[in-house]
Amino acid sequence: MVPEFEVEISRHYELVELRTELTAEDVASGFVEHHDYQCLGLPSWQEAAACLAEEAEILERAARSSAPDGIEEILDALHEEDGVGFAELMSVFHWNDIGVAGASLALSAARTATFYSCSSGLDHRHHAKYPMVGLVPDAERATLIAELAERTGCGIGQQWGRWYLYARSVTAFHALGQSILEHRQAFDALPQPTWVEGLEEELERVNDC
Known about the structure:
Number of domains: 1
Structural class: alpha+beta
Mean pLDDT: 94
Number of helices: 9
Helix content: 40-55%
Distance between the termini: 42 Å
Shape: globular
Strand order of the largest sheet: 1-2-4-3
Order of helices and strands: HHHHHEEHEEHHH
Largest sheet: 4 strands, antiparallel
Strand content: 5-15%
Radius of gyration: 17 Å
């Protein structure tokens, strides 16, 4: 099965208080205190679609499992049986947690600045109490995301000008990622955030350090 967590879903945010001063350097090197920050760069919609397709397959298998956390059962078995195959699979998810990786990549393809993701879990390997993704969208993208979050049962919290999306289960996050992908033309029609220009160069600089 896919775990569900106790959390009240609500959506509280102020578009006028979203951060608007982010630069390419900020996004590349980290602009929050969350540990293990890693910029997802500027992924294509094709990359997001591939990630979501792999994620869907694993979530379907996990839902059929009798284990309390079918996702962890699948990953633990693969890691034990085929370390190379496990690494290849996780590279599709950019080594983010399955269940929130697809939404994170879709949000990055939609040109929001993602900075955190955690699927939560029944063990002590995760630090979030329930599935969560952190991002900074501009106001226009935020309006679209808020509508899709409501449709898919995801909540929105806002703190220090940044958003924390959350849900009772990663299945809701996967649905959100799929919905963002389906509405990619609407996101592509919006002006690019200012931090997009120069981000690839900044990422090269960070990686060379």
